[in-house]
């Protein structure tokens, strides 16, 4: 294990690849509905036998398993029928190409699904990894659907970028497996009402590291797959995680994955105008994403709402988005004025400087696009009765709020200690983050 990996594990709160309580719970809960047996006896790391070979697994074994460090990962010691395999993944991908809006759009752009599906047949899928995907299918079907959809987006970007079928095989593996670390996260993260702040965000940062280590342990995938999975939440401007890489520091496959993740997320998150929202986001955030790859996506996305689209929800959003953005910008200005003259010399001055620079960049981008709250507020009185115009203002506002939330998240992730408010700079950042949370909660 490299020194860099050790540091990342420590930063993310990981001690080892030991199966955690949340994954063991998912496995044993799955075993209540599926026939899961031990193919080898399960031992603790100090040689105590916990479960005999051939024993049926069920939820009653959870307490015994979770109390001990196991000699080997649980995936390598269990077997079951109807495990996810390559043919099952291909069938799911084909169904998405026929029925899901985003994969269907990509398949049509390539003249059909054949080119998207071809690399799947050659993917290596070791039994422990197939078992994890089976747990995902049984316990988190939404996560498996997301992983397959992201795989199709990544393959589209690779194919349109000139990658051959052989080159696309590891790309398909990386995209499919990018979120296996999520299986080890507390299920509370699935609750949209759950708000994560401060040090709690390190558990979110952990999942790319966890996934990378699991893939490395299989010794079945190229190093490029490990790197890309680790990088799927990085950003070209250095604002991503877990390593804060930028530009060419991010591998070619990692750049595909980071864009594919965002493209997929927009179509999953928004039922109203996902393509238009995505188009706007990519154009307003051109420094965050690889320009060449973005150029492969934008031609597929309409800039304006399609005729007949229901714009009423967006119309009502316009004024509220402007109010929240204005409030957040003004709140930071107020906090900034209360700081001492030498605020950069304070221990938490870097966190303050980060918020200052990121907010300045956001306001500049909005001004350049004619979409700053002050500019949009002036437009509103002229747009009354113009449903499409109001909808476009709301789309811009929603995208700016997404960027605002990302600044709050990044501040808390990078400097969780500011929430202790030990000095003036700490207090400024912490109060501003809390205030933004209250403003965003009004939407």
UniProtKB/TrEMBL annotation:
Pfam families, A to Z: HD_5
Transmembrane segments: none
GO MF annotation: an example: phosphoric diester hydrolase activity
Coiled coil (UniProt feature): none
Domain HD-GYP: 121-317
Annotated PANTHER family: CYCLIC DI-GMP PHOSPHODIESTERASE PA4108, CYCLIC DI-GMP PHOSPHODIESTERASE PA4108-RELATED
Identification of the protein by name: HD domain-containing protein
Organism: Paenacidovorax monticola
């Amino acid at each position: 294990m490299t020194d860099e990996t050790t540091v990342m594990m420590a930063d993310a709160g990981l001690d080892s690849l030991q199966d955690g309580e949340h994954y063991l719970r998912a496995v044993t809960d799955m075993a209540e509905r599926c026939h899961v047996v031990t193919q080898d006896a399960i031992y603790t790391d100090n040689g105590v036998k916990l479960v005999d070979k051939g024993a049926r697994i069920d939820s009653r074994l959870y307490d015994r398993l979770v109390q001990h460090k196991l000699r080997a990962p649980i995936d390598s010691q269990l077997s079951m029928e109807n495990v996810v395999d390559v043919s099952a993944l291909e069938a799911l991908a084909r169904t998405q190409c026929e029925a899901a809006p985003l994969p269907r759009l990509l398949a049509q752009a390539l003249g059909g699904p054949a080119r998207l599906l071809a690399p799947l047949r050659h993917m290596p899928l070791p039994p422990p990894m197939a078992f994890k995907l089976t747990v995902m299918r049984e316990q988190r079907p939404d996560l498996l659907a997301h992983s397959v959809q992201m795989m199709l987006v990544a393959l589209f970007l690779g194919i349109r970028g000139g990658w051959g079928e052989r080159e696309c095989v590891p790309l398909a593996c990386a995209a499919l497996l990018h979120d296996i670390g999520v299986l080890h996260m507390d299920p509370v993260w699935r609750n949209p009402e759950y708000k994560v702040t401060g040090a709690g965000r390190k558990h979110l940062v952990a999942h790319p590291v966890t996934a990378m280590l699991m893939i490395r342990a299989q010794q079945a995938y190229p190093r490029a797959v490990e790197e890309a999975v680790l990088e799927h939440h990085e950003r070209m401007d250095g604002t991503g995680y877990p390593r804060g890489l930028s530009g060419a520091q991010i591998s070619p496959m990692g750049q595909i994955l980071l864009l594919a993740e965002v493209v997929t997320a927009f179509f999953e998150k928004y039922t109203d105008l996902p393509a238009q929202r995505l188009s706007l986001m990519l154009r307003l955030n051109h420094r965050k994403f690889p320009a060449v790859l973005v150029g492969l996506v934008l031609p597929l996305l309409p800039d304006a709402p399609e005729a007949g689209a229901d714009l009423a929800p967006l119309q009502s959003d316009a004024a509220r988005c402007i109010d929240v953005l204005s409030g957040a910008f003004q709140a930071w200005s107020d906090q900034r004025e209360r700081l001492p003259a030498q605020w950069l010399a304070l221990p938490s001055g870097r966190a303050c400087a980060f918020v200052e620079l990121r907010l300045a960049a956001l306001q500049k981008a909005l001004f350049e696009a004619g979409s700053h709250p002050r500019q949009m507020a002036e437009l509103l009185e002229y747009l009354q009765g113009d449903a499409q115009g109001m909808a476009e203002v709301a789309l811009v506002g929603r995208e700016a709020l997404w960027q605002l939330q990302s600044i709050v998240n990044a501040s808390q992730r990078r400097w969780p200690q500011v929430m202790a408010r030990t000095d003036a700079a700490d207090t400024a950042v912490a109060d501003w983050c809390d205030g933004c949370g209250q403003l965003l909660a009004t939407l």
